[in-house]
Amino acid sequence: MTLKTPQTTSDNDKAGRTPDALEQQLVLELRRGLITLTVLGALRQPAYGYSLRQHLAENGFEVDQGTLYPLLRRLDGQGLLDSDWNTEGARPRKYYRLNARGSAMLETLRGHWHAMAEVVETLFASSDSEEGDTP
Amino acid sequence: MMTEIIDRYVFAVTRYLPTKQRADVTEELSSSLLDELENRFGREATDDDLVTMLKEMGPPETVAASYRPSSQYLIGPKWYPAFRRTLKIVIPIEIVVLAAYVVMSYLRGTGVLDAGEAFDPLDAIFTVFGLAFDIAIYTVGIIVLVFVGLERSDSEAEPEPEWDPRTLPAPYAEEDTVDRLGSIVAIVLQFLFLGALLRYRDQIGFVVVPGEPPLLNDIVQANLPWITAVLVLGIAHAVYLLWRGSWSVLSRAADFFLDLAGLFILWWIATDIRAATDDLLAAGLDERLVELIHNVTIGSPIVVFLLIIVGHSQVLYRMVARAQDSRGLVHDS
C-alpha cells in the first residue's frame, strides 16, 4: 500500500491553493472577460449552442456549457443577436446570429481589445528593458 | 431513463427562472444537452455518462444563476454596510429596553408578561430569553425586508449619489472609536430616568403625612427644568456620538461639561436639602435618618466629582501623550 504524499504546503497561497490551481483560476479570470468578444466574433456565422461550443473549442477557446448557453440568451436579450428556432433536424435547435447592432458592438469591442493588448505589451516591453538595464 | 434525467435537470434549472422564460429555456437546454451527450459519448451513452456530464455543468441553481444577469443579491454591496450598521444599533437598543423592562417588572413585583402575576426570577429568565430571541428574529426580518425593498427600488440606471473625499471622516485611533453598546445603554437609561422623573414628579420625596405633597418635593420640582435640560443634552450627545462613530476633542469637552453640569445640579440640590434639614426634623422625621440625608448630601457630590475626574483624566492623559508622540515624530523627521 502506498501512502499519498501530502503536497508541500509551502508553495500554496494563503487560501491553500496549489500553484496549479491558482494558475487555473487566474487563467479563468483572464478568459472570462474575453468570452463575450469571442462569442460575438464567432456568431458572424449562425450557430446553435452546442455547435458554437464545438467551434470555439476547435479553435482553442473552451467555454463551459453552463457559461455559454446562458450567455447566448443574455446577448440575445441585449439585442446584439437574432435567434430562430430550426425544427428541420433530428431535434429543434435555436440558432443565433450577430445582427447589425451586434456587429457594430463587435467592432467597438475589437478596437478596445487591440488597444488593451497593445498597452499590455508595451508595459511588458518597458519593464523587460528596465529589468535588462538593472545590474 | 436518460431523457428523464435531462428533464429533471432542466426542470430544476428552470424553476429558478421567470415563468415566461421557462418554456424556451427548457427546449433549448434539453436540445443542447442531448447534442453534447451524443457528441461526447456517441449514441451508446449511458446514464453514468450523462450524470458525469451534468455534474461537470454544475448544480441547477448555479446554472440558473448564470441565466439571470440582474442582481443576485438580496442586499447588495451598496446597501450592505448600512444594513449591518442598522442591525448593530437596533438590536442592542431592543435588548437594553427589554432588560430595563424586566428590571421595572422586578421593581413593581409583577410578572414580566402578566402584570397580575408575582415576579418569579426563573420564569423571568426564560421569558426574557424567549422574548429576546423572538424580537431579534422579527427585527432582523423586518430590517432585511426594508433593505431588500431599497435594493430592488434602487435601479442601476440611477446615478451614484454625489460624494466628496474631502468630507469623509478623518482617520481616528482605536481608542477614539465610540463604544456603541455603551452609547445605546446611556441613551436608554437617560431616557427612562427622564421619563420616570417627569411621570412621578409629584411623588418624589419623603411622605410623612399621606395625601400631602412629600417633603423635599419642592426642591425636586424647582430643579426639574435643569435636570431635564442636562438629560436631554446627554441623550442628544450620545445620539450624535452613535451617528458619528468617533470621539473628537470637541465631543470629549462637551462630555466633560455635561458631567460638570450634572454635578453642579447635584450640588445645588444637595445644598437645598441641607438647608431644609430643620424642616425635616420639624416634620417629625427620625433624627438618624435626617443625619444620614445630611451626610449623603455632602458625600454624593464629592464621590461624583471624583468619578468625573478619574474618568476624564484617563482620556486627557491619552490625548496629551498622543500630542507629545506626534510632536516627537515631527522632530524625528
Note down, in words, how this protein is organized.
Chain A is extended, with a radius of gyration of 21 Å. Chain A has four helices and three strands, in the order αβααββα. Chain A is mainly α and 135 residues long. The longest helix of chain A has 34 residues. Helix content of chain A is 60%, strand content 10%. Helices cover 73% and strands 0% of the residues of chain B. With 333 residues, chain B is mostly helical. The longest helix of chain B is centred in the last third of the chain and has 46 residues. In chain B, 11% of the residues are buried. Chain B is elongated and about 110 Å long. The chains are: A mainly alpha (135), B mainly alpha (333). At the A-B interface, helix 2 and helix 3 of A face helix 2 and helix 4 of B.
Summarize the entry for a quick read.
Chain A is 60% helix and 10% strand.
- Written as H for each helix and E for each strand, in order along the chain, the element string of chain B is HHHHHHHHHHH
Distance from first to last alpha carbon of chain A: 52 Å
- Helical content of chain B (DSSP H or I, runs of 4+): over 70%
Rounded mean pLDDT score of chain A: 88
Strand content of chain A: 5-15%
**What string, H for helix and E for strand, traces the elements of chain A in order?**
HEHHEEH
Sheet with the most strands of chain A? 3 strands, antiparallel
Features:
heterodimer; A: 135 residues; mainly alpha; three-stranded antiparallel beta sheet; 60% helix; 10% strand; extended; B: 333 residues
